Amino acid sequence: MNDNAMSIPHLIMNASTVVQLVMLLLLVGSILSWVVIFQRSIALRNAKQEYNQFEESFGQVST
C-alpha cells in the first residue's frame, strides 16, 4: 500500500464533492467560532478593566 494514499491531502482531494463541501463548512464554522471566542475574551477583559477603574474612582469620591 502506498503511504501517500492515506495522507490527509490525498484523502481530501479524492473525496466526493459533498464531503469536500462539508469539510469546508466545518472549517469555516471552526474559524468563525474561534473569532467569536477571541472577540468575547477581549470584550470581557476590557469590561473588567473599565469596572476596576470605575471602582477605584468611585471609592476615591465617596471617602
From TrEMBL:
Q: Where are the transmembrane segments?
A: 12-38
Q: Which UniProt keywords apply?
A: Membrane, Transmembrane, Transmembrane helix
The identity of this protein, by name, is MotA/TolQ/ExbB proton channel domain-containing protein
What is the organism field in this record?
Vreelandella sulfidaeris
- Which lineage do the record's taxonomy fields give for this organism? Bacteria, Pseudomonadati, Pseudomonadota, Gammaproteobacteria, Oceanospirillales
